[in-house]
Amino acid sequence: MTWDDPVPETDQRLVAAAADGEERAVEAALRPKDLGEFVGQERVREQLDLVLKAARQRGGTADHVLLSGAPGLGKTTLSMIIAAEMGAPIRITSGPAIQHAGDLAAILSSLTEGEVLFLDEIHRMSRPAEEMLYMAMEDFRVDVIVGKGPGATAIPLELPPFTLVGATTRAGLLPPPLRDRFGFTGHMEFYAPAELERVVRRSADLLDVVIDTDGAAEIAGRSRGTPRIANRLLRRVRDYAQVKADGVVTREIAAQALDVYEVDLRGLDRLDRAVLDALLRLFGGGPVGLSTLAVAVGEERETVEEVAEPFLVREGLLARTPRGRIATPAAWAHLGLVPPQQPNPPGQQGLFGQ
Ligand SMILES: Nc1ncnc2c1ncn2[C@@H]1O[C@H](COP(=O)(O)OP(=O)(O)OP(=O)(O)O)[C@@H](O)[C@H]1O
User: Fold this and answer.
1) Name one GO molecular function term (predicted).
2) If you placed Cys at 267, which of 64, 222, 311, 351 could pair as Cys (CB 3.0 to 4.6 Å)?
3) Which residue, 225, 243, 230, 224, is CA-closest to 204?
């Protein structure tokens, strides 16, 4: 497996959606092995089930599959399930690991018939490799260029039929010719709390952790719609339950543990709350410019914009407007603060129609 990309420093948070190599090794034990075990994503599961069943009935190779969605929602897991359901081996690589077309040619030419090639972060592949992939996907053929300059020749190389599973967090960044070569695209959504609760209970079972329904619900509610985060929080809660209590995870124990790790009821961590707190207390809820907000919390502009804000926006706690960042009424409520009363100019509504 090649997941060579370092996780950015700022992403090494308990609530980070990305994982480093070490965590991926721990995660391997928790991966569902077939579609039946895979929690949630009903639509994608049903559609994929049809694609795979039909391919099996025809005795052929499944169409190429594109999975799009945020990190930690189960794209790698689904690719392994696709291989398992097709009874095929799987090869795993990622866009950034394929710098040259030659790297891709080497991988493609060593595939066996029906093999699944999982290409994570497919949007980060180099241009020449991408162009080679077009032909490989469509015609199961690549042209290997031998030599340089005017004497260079293209030697056609036949490939066995294979299934490409591409994963991307940014489907919009894929060039249309690449997108169009996938027979099926699955859009992965964030998970509902009840689904995450099932993920937590399943993982607890596998890790031999005793947990009650409320304990699982408490962890699920703080997991930002993401199974990877749910599993990570479960591991930290397990430590707490073992060291500070009798090992059993109840709602109270889960809440105490996650309070220690500063992950609040909605899954906000220290950084998220610092941004909201500054926006509300220092700037009256905004609008305030990103740079000013970043200085106020002692972080880089990029950290606030790329690490904290996406989740705050998704949660409906912060809005990005042309005039700057503004807090929503939900943000005031979440931090238990009361918004200042601002008289609206005659005939004009306030920002939130208040
Ligand atoms: N639907 C699910 N049911 C149960 N566990 C899940 C589900 N989806 C993901 N997980 C668990 O969450 C963890 C992360 O999943 P996975 O590595 O597949 O995510 P990903 O979308 O590929 O992430 P990335 O984009 O960072 O590669 C794994 O331990 C996996 O077992």
Assistant:
1) hydrolase activity
2) 222
3) 230
Domain boundary among 132, 153, 187: 187
Q: Which domain holds residue 158?
A: 41-187
Q: Tell me how far the alpha carbon of residue 45 lies from the centroid of ligand 1, in angstroms.
A: 14
Complex ipTM > 0.95: yes
Cα–Cα distance for residue pair 351/286, rounded to 1 Å: 10
Specify the residue for token string 């199961």: 140
pLDDT in tens, 2-13: 444 444 444 578
State pLDDT tens for residues 17-62: 888 778 888 888 899 999 999 999 999 999 999 999 999 999 999 9
**pTM score:** 0.89
- Number of domains making up the chain: 2
Contacts 24+ apart (CB under 8 A), 339-346: 339/285, 340/284, 340/285
